[in-house]
Known about the structure:
The chain has helices at about 15-30, 50-55, 65-75, 90-95, 120-135, 160-180, 180-185, and strands at about 1-5, 35, 75-80, 110-115, 140, 145-150. The protein is of the alpha/beta class. Strands 1, 2, 3, 4, 5 and 6 form a 6-stranded parallel β-sheet that branches. Strand 1 (about 1-5), helix 1 and strand 2 (about 35) form a beta-alpha-beta unit. Helix 1 crosses helix 6.
Amino acid sequence: MILIISGSPRRGGNTDFICDVLRSEIERLGEEVRILRVYEYDIKPCTSCRLCVRKKECIIKDDMRKIYPLLLQADAIIIVSPVYFNNIPSQLKALIDRTWCIRGKLKDKIGGIVVVGRRYGHYGAICALISFMLKHEMILGMRGVTTFGFEKNEVKCDVEGLKDVRKLARRIIELVRKFRSPYEHQK
C-alpha cells in the first residue's frame, strides 16, 4: 500500500489536488493507495516526555493511534505539503514529531516529497521532509518535487510541476516493486 499524506490544514486546496493526482497515477499503475489528510485527525504536539523510549509507544492519547498502523503498513510514504513560512505547516510537523516512538520501524520504506507554494520557501519545506525521512532511514524515491500555486486550484496551471508529480508516482512504484520479496511479486 502506498500512503499519501496531505499535510495541509486546509480542505480542498492545492495540496489535496496534488494528492488526487498522485492517487490517480498510482491506481493507474495497479497499486493500492490511501490518502491521509492531517485536517481529518486530532494530532497533539509531542511533549518531549521521552516516555516512548521506555514504553516503546507514545503515551499521548489522540488520533496518532489510528495513523501509526498506516505508517507501518505502507510500502511507501509520499508527503505532500504546502509551504508555510518557508517550512511545513505545524499540523504536519506534529505528526512527524510524534513518529519518534516508531523510530527504526520506517527503515527502508520508500519516501517521496511534493511541496506546493508561491515562488519561494520550497527549499525549506523540502529540507524538513527529507530530514524526517532520512532520520527514519527511509529510501528517497527522488528529490523533492516543487509545484507552484497559491490561490485555490492555481497548481492546476503548473504543467511542468504536475508532470514531475506523476514522474514521482511512477518512480515510487518502480522502487516498491524492486524491493518487494519474490513471493509478493507472485500475488
